[in-house]
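Exercise: predict the fold of this chain.
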Amino acid sequence: MNQRRSLMVLLIIVGVALIALGIYYWVTPAGSLPSFFPGHLAGSAHKHIKHGLAAGIAGIACFLGAWMLSGKE
C-alpha cells in the first residue's frame, strides 16, 4: 500500500471517529461525559453543542481530505 493510500485510510478512520464524537457530545450531558473529555462538568445537565459541531466539522474536513487524495496523481 503506498503512502498516499494509507494516509487516505487514516483520514477516513479519524473522520468517522470525529463524527461519532460530535454525536456523542450532542446527546450526552456535560455531567455524564468522561472526565478526560473537554467540557466535562460534574453534575451539569448542559449539552455541549459547539463541541459537537466542531468535532463534526473536523470529521467532514477529514473526509474532504481523503476525497482529495483519492484522485489521480
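Check your answer against the key: DSSP finds two helices and no strands in the chain.
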